[in-house]
Each structure stands twice: as structure tokens, then as C-alpha cells.
Design a protein that fits this description.
The chain has 564 residues and is of the alpha+beta class. The longest helix is centred in the middle third of the chain and has 19 residues, at 327-345.
Length: 564
């Protein structure tokens, strides 16, 4: 995992904006200075490649997780005609490397991302995208063709932004903060797309267009296949040459990932103990269950306790790092940032997590109020396609604020395509049927039923496997959301809030809490240029749901199982 910054002039000559004045005297100095703002993403190495004759410069901040000795970027092809700066992990790089070796003789990849160059050389400027599997954003420049390619993974697990400055230069960076004070326009780079700059023309094509986006699936759930697909996804995500662990909130998603990873790792070492981590206030609801899972799988578990004051102190830093004023993003990111700092202090560079399951299987409690299967699926599609605005953004930027790479097996492309192609009626079974039978006991109205049922043998204790969804910001301690809401509201007086529409015409805050986060965001990222890079996470009000994003605000939060 890394941070990348690329500046290119479509006319072939990068000109420094007058905004920099005489403070910046070269293109290299300008790019290096702006990339420094995301150096927390890659504390191990900074690489710069400038091609003045082509009007392009690359900067890469590296976090060395795979092949640390040879993987410094930007990478160049053997004849140096292709330059690549990439951020992320290519999970099928070993398989691709083997294919390349068969075709071209000996091939030893310098890093997992090195295969991007080889695939481009083999298949050309668009076809090669269909051979790469992983989480990534990258920029590749072909000097012979005078062609720049920029792309982002199908779901947007890895952040990427695009901007244009007042000299017409195109900017691409992993974080918005690199574009502050430089670009006049900034936008989210769309996931699943490939952008090409050639002969002064900019085109963007969609390379990821699965049928489940536009059609209602009709395939019945196969629990055995579903389980195997997730096991395969976790296995592919365990590649690492650096110490790693797993988040373990005590919810079913992170618990399954930790349990599956443990079983896989014990194939090589029967005594292996996975490092696992949970965070919360004193006596947080999640701790009971995370400790239960840790005991069950035999992990080396660390329980991190934080205080309300610790979290409130982090609000401004959290908005800076997440680059968001969305309420649920801020609430959730604070404990995640606190946890990432401690995990990194213990020497880990990579952590597994359970993001994505709620979007794929309808795990949020407001899904209980979906009116029918069609609407249920449409909402799943919407949530999956917005992951880059919410959970992926939060998880990536919160952990990378301390140079900790987070991997999300539920969002493995093969697993995602398989799971999203299951008919919505099967995914709704646990919330629309009054009772279901599992292991000889009745389970009442439980979300993500087919995922749980697929692992209803020896992966988790029943108390965790069939535990109702508890959103992360709730599970760390119910008083956390109550306290941060109360604190934020105390910072905004009635007269100021009455002018919300006038002060913030874009994404006008509806509550004082939202107003406070927006005000801090505007101090850090001033002007409307950056305001619309943020989207607000809100449940389906038209389904009769409470607009507060907390799971506790939904009617389904009351006792999940009546027959314990």
C-alpha cells in the first residue's frame, strides 16, 4: 500500500502555477512538496521519476509489505519505455508471474505491481485490465506511444482523486490534501474505470460492468460454494512479507475473516496464533464477543480501551485524514485511527478486516424494512457502488494515517461477483421469515442469514455467528456516539446553525453535529472545490427508517433472538 501523485500536461510541458510564486522553482520540487502531505501512507521510501520531455512526473510514497528489497517505485520496464506508480496489492501476481515466465522465459517480479507493466506489454491499453485482480490505483506512462493510463480497482477500495490546476495540468493523487492550494477542480476518480491521455485527448472507459448492477439476480444461494469462495478470497489476501494481523470487533464479519485466516495459516504451522485487535470504551458491547472469538480461534488478542476524551481530541485530525465530514465516517474513523496507531506501534504493516459484507448481504439494520426483493437488491447495488465514498474510504484512510495497510477479503472481485449474483430473496430470508432453524435452535429475524449459515459448523461460537449486527461506532460503546454528538452540538450555537443553508449551500448539514464536522472540514479544505467530494451516508428514509446513521436508531436494533 502506498500513496501516489502524478502531474501531467496534455500539451507536453508542465508549467508551474503562479499560485506557488517564487517559493517553488522546479516541477520536481512542486510535486515532491505536494506529495509530502500523504507521506504517512508510505513511510518507507519516496521515489520520483520526472520525464521533462513528455511533461509528466511521478511521485510514490511506499509502504513495503511485499518484496521490500526490490519493490521501490516508480517502476520502469526493462527498456525504460514504461513508467508505473501504483498503490495497492495485486493478489493474483504470482499466477500472472507464472504465465509471463511461460511465455517469455525467466521472470522474477520486483513487486506484486510489477505485473501491471508486463500485462500492459502483453495485452495492450485496455484488455490488460481484465487480467489483474486486487485493490489498486495506478498511473502508467508509455513513452513510445506518448500515452498515460490511470485506473482504479472495481469497487474503489484504494482512494484516487483527479484535479486540474489553473495551468491545465492534470493531477492524480491518493488523497485530496495533495491537491489543496493547487487545483481549481477536484473529483473522485470513478472506480472500475480506465482513463487514457493521448495526443492531448482525455477519454475514460468503464472496464468493470457486471450484470448484477443492471439485472435482478435469479441464482439460488449455494452455501457450500459461498463458503469456499470466501475461504479462497481470504487465502489470496494473506500474501505478506511483513508482520500482519486481523481486526476483531466481535461481529460476524471480522470474526469470520480472523477465523478463516487462522485455519489457513495453521495448514503450514499448527501452532500459529494470529494477532487480533479490538477497541472500545470500558465495558464496550463488542469486547464480550471479541474475547469469545479470540479464545475460540486461539489468537494472540489485544483489547484496546480508549476514553471519551481521547476520541474527542481526535475529531479534527480524523477529518483531516479521512477528508470527509460525513457523520458516520467521523464517528467510526476515530476509534479506528486510535487502533491503527497502536497496531503500527507493535510492528505490524498489514491488517485484515471485514468491510463490505453488510453492503453485499444487506447487513445494516435498516434493511429489515426493505419493502420487497427488488428494492432490497437495488439498495445493495447502491451501497456496493458507494463503498468508495464510505467504508472503503474510512477504513483505508484511517489505517493509512499511520502507514497500516488494510485488506478486505469480502471485496475480492471473484467473491463479490459471486455473492452479488445470488437472488435477493435468499439474502432476505433471515429478516423476512419470522424464524429459521439453525443447529437445532430457532433464530429470529437475523440479517446476513446465508453468510452465517454457510459457516455454521466449526468456525465461530453460535453466540457470535448469530449475533445481531452492531455497527462499529455503536459496538465500541453506546456512550461514544451519544458523547460525540453532544460535544459537537455544544460547539454550534442556534444563530449559527440557522444560517446553515446560506453558509453551506452544497450538502447543507441537517444537524448541529453535521454542521460542526462541516465547519472543521472547511477550515482544513476551504472552498467549494472539495465540498462535493463528500457524500452523506443516510439510511432509506422512504422505507420509514430513522435518518441517523447509527444502527441503534433503527427499530430492528432491539433483541435479535427471542429464544436464547
Amino acid at each position: 500500500m502506498c500513496g501516489i501523485l502524478v502531474v501531467m500536461s496534455p500539451t507536453g510541458e508542465i508549467k508551474i502555477s503562479p499560485k506557488f510564486g517564487k517559493r517553488i522553482r522546479s516541477i520536481r520540487e512542486m510535486a515532491y512538496k505536494q506529495s509530502k502531505k500523504q507521506r504517512h501512507r508510505g513511510p518507507d521510501h519516496t521515489g520520483v521519476v520526472e520525464l521533462p520531455d513528455d511533461g509528466i512526473i511521478f511521485v510514490q510514497e511506499r509502504l513495503a509489505v511485499l518484496l521490500p528489497e526490490t519493490g521501490d517505485q516508480p517502476l520502469k520496464s526493462k527498456d525504460e519505455s514504461i513508467v508505473l506508480a501504483a498503490n495497492g496489492e495485486i493478489y493474483n501476481y504470482l499466477e500472472l508471474s507464472a504465465e509471463i515466465a511461460k511465455q517469455k522465459g525467466k521472470y522474477v517480479p520486483r513487486s506484486d505491481c510489477d505485473v501491471i507493466i508486463a500485462m500492459y506489454e502483453e495485452f495492450g491499453s485496455e484488455e490488460f485490465m481484465h487480467h489483474i485482480s486486487g485493490m489498486f490505483s495506478f498511473a502508467l506512462y508509455d513513452k513510445n506511444a506518448k500515452r498515460l493510463l490511470v485506473s482504479r480497482d472495481p469497487i474503489g477500495i484504494i482512494p484516487l482523486y483527479m484535479g486540474v490546476d489553473d495551468m491545465g495540468n492534470l493531477w492524480f493523487s491518493s488523497e485530496v490534501k495533495c491537491l489543496v492550494d493547487v487545483c481549481d477542480t477536484v473529483k473522485d476518480f470513478e472506480p472500475g474505470t480506465l482513463l487514457t491521455v493521448e495526443n492531448g485527448n482525455v477519454t475514460q472507459t468503464k472496464y468493470y460492468q457486471p450484470t448484477w448492477i443492471s439485472e435482478i439476480p435469479t441464482r439460488k444461494a449455494d452455501l457450500t460454494l459461498l463458503r469456499q469462495q470466501l475461504i479462497n478470497a481470504v487465502r489470496s489476501h494473506l500474501q505478506s512479507d511483513a508482520p500482519f494481523g486481523s481486526l476483531l470487533s466481535g461481529g460476524v464479519d471480522s470474526s469470520l475473516i480472523a477465523s478463516i485466516a487462522t485455519q489457513i495459516l495453521r495448514e503450514r504451522d499448527p501452532n500459529y496464533r494470529l494477532k487480533t485487535y479490538s477497541i472500545g470504551l470500558e465495558n464496550a458491547p463488542d469486547f464480550k464477543y471479541s474475547n469469545m472469538v479470540a479464545d475460540y480461534i486461539g489468537s494472540d488478542h489485544r483489547e484496546i480501551i480508549f476514553k471519551i476524551e481521547d476520541g474527542l481530541d481526535c475529531i479534527r485530525d480524523t477529518i483531516y485524514h479521512t477528508e470527509s465530514y460525513d457523520i458516520t465516517t467521523v464517528r467510526c474513523s476515530i476509534p479506528m485511527i486510535l487502533m491503527a496507531r497502536l497496531i503500527k506501534s507493535e510492528g505490524l504493516k498489514m491488517i485484515l478486516s471485514g468491510e463490505g459484507a453488510d453492503e453485499i448481504f444487506g447487513g445494516y439494520l435498516y434493511f429489515h424494512q426493505a419493502p420487497n426483493a427488488q428494492e432490497f437488491h437495488h439498495e445493495l447495488v447502491k451501497r456496493v457502488l458507494q463503498l468508495h465514498k464510505f467504508d472503503c474510504l474510512r477504513a483505508n484512510k484511517a489505517t493509512m494515517s499511520y502507514g497500516l495497510e488494510l485488506r478486505v477479503p469480502f471485496l475480492d472481485t471473484d467473491f463479490l461477483n459471486h455473492s452479488m449474483s445470488i437472488r435477493p430473496e435468499d439474502k432476505m430470508a433471515g429478516i423476512k421469515n419470522q424464524f429459521a432453524q439453525e443447529n437445532g435452535r430457532r433464530v429470529a429475524r437475523i440479517e446476513k442469514h446465508i453468510l452465517r449459515a454457510a459457516f455454521a459448523d466449526d468456525y465461530l461460537p453460535d453466540a457470535v455467528l448469530w449475533r445481531q449486527k452492531e455497527q462499529f461506532s455503536d459496538g465500541v460503546g453506546y456512550s461514544w456516539i451519544d458523547s460525540i454528538r453532544s460535544f459537537a452540538e455544544s460547539q454550534i450555537d442556534d444563530a449559527e446553525f440557522a444560517k446553515a443553508n446560506e453558509i453551506y449551500p452544497i450538502n447543507t448539514p441537517a444537524t448541529k453535529e453535521a454542521f460542526y464536522y462541516r465547519a472543521l472540514f472547511e477550515e482544513i479544505f476551504p472552498g467549494d472545490t472539495f465540498a462535493d467530494t463528500v457524500t452523506k451516508w443516510v439510511p432509506r428514509i422512504d422505507w420509514g427508517c430513522n435518518q441517523d446513521p447509527s444502527g441503534r436508531a433503527q427499530t430492528a436494533h432491539t433483541a435479535a433472538y427471542k429464544d436464547k
